[in-house]
Design a protein that fits this description.
By secondary structure, this protein is α+β, with helices and mostly antiparallel strands. Helices cover about 25% and strands about 30% of the residues. The protein is globular.
């Protein structure tokens, strides 16, 4: 004969589970790999205006080709995509409005880096959508990777500059 198992929770367990349920109700859900449907890149301007760029919007900008080595890949790689400056100004902001500002760049895994908006003009990084002729997927550092022309500029071959290469980029907040 099988005996029915009886579960007994202590008062401490009840309080613990109740507290966890209450916290779960008020805490935001984790955002890992979450972005607005259809939006490849969200840009928040200092005015509070939010722009959501879809793949088609990024494809419509003039694209550049950049061939360079990276610390994360073997040999030279070919990257294609628009200049960061073209993405930033595509909504109407000007270089003078962006001068001296900072950019908070966020990746799908919640990694974030703050870099000078002036980098967009000083170093001409590309917001790469393709690597070696293929669209980048999330597993391949895509869909967007901020790539600097490292081989062309010795001042970009420093570890502090390598930290600015953010991949899986999906959000830019102009500070």
């Amino acid at each position: 004969m099988r005996r029915a198992m009886k579960t007994v929770l202590s008062r401490r367990d009840l309080v613990l589970f109740g507290s966890m349920a209450a916290l779960a109700a008020v805490l935001p859900a984790p955002r890992l790999f979450a972005r607005p449907a259809g939006a490849m890149l969200t840009i928040t301007e200092p005015s509070g205006r939010v722009r959501q760029l879809e793949a088609e919007d990024i494809a419509a900008l003039p694209w550049q080709q950049l061939i360079t080595q990276t610390p994360w890949t073997d040999g030279k790689q070919q990257f294609r995509g628009p200049f960061l400056r073209d993405v930033l100004t595509s909504g109407g902001m000007t270089r003078s409005e962006l001068a001296g500002r900072k950019l908070l760049m966020k990746a799908l895994n919640d990694y974030g880096i703050v870099l000078p908006a002036d980098d967009a003009w000083d170093y001409e990084p590309v917001l790469a959508r393709e690597m070696n002729g293929k669209p980048m997927r999330v597993r391949d550092k895509g869909p967007l990777w901020l790539v600097y022309p490292r081989d062309q500029r010795p001042d970009l071959q420093l570890a502090v500059m390598d930290e600015r290469w953010i991949w899986q980029l999906f959000e830019i907040t102009i500070l």
